[in-house]
Structure to design on (180 residues):
């Protein structure tokens, strides 16, 4: 049980970062009013943290569920978010992109605490799939907003490639939800 505590703490932080508004980030503008620097780095950080949360939640689901459809969804999420996480880490190393940690409120993490403490039964499956639907919808909405303020072409392209993947994850989660 102790081995999971650092991962859970990362999950709590990630959810808080993912749900906090981008407007909280310090914005640096040029004379022309163009958004630069800090906000873009915080977007990358939030995306990295979000993918990390998705991986951990899906791994938890893989270990808890007895439902093949939920297990398949969890496997899809682990693979997709792990691949994107690797891409983001490389992107964060780029001089014109970078990464800057952003602290945010942890008030929205209660659902994850409940999920983690749930018994391995159909109520866990429903809670997991419901959370995934909500998280993916929120992530898609955030990426669409962040796309308009990202200044790096590489980050813009990553967001453009990521939105359809997340939409696929969302559709799959919604499909699984109708069967639970």
């Amino acid at each position: 049980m102790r081995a999971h505590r650092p991962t859970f703490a990362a999950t709590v932080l990630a959810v808080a970062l993912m749900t906090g508004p981008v407007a909280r980030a310090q914005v640096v503008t040029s004379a022309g009013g163009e958004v630069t620097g800090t906000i873009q780095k915080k977007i990358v950080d939030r995306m990295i943290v979000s993918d990390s949360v998705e991986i951990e939640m899906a791994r938890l689901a893989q270990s808890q569920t007895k439902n093949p459809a939920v297990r398949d969804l969890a496997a899809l999420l682990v693979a997709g978010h792990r691949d994107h996480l690797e891409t983001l880490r490389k992107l964060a190393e780029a001089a014109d992109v970078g990464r800057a940690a952003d602290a945010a409120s942890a008030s929205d993490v209660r659902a994850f605490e409940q999920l983690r403490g749930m018994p391995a039964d159909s109520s866990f499956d429903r809670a997991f799939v419901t959370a995934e639907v909500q998280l993916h919808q929120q992530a898609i909405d955030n990426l669409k907003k962040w796309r308009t303020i990202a200044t790096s072409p590489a980050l813009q392209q990553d967001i453009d490639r990521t939105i359809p993947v997340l939409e696929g994850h969302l559709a799959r989660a919604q499909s699984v939800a109708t069967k639970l």
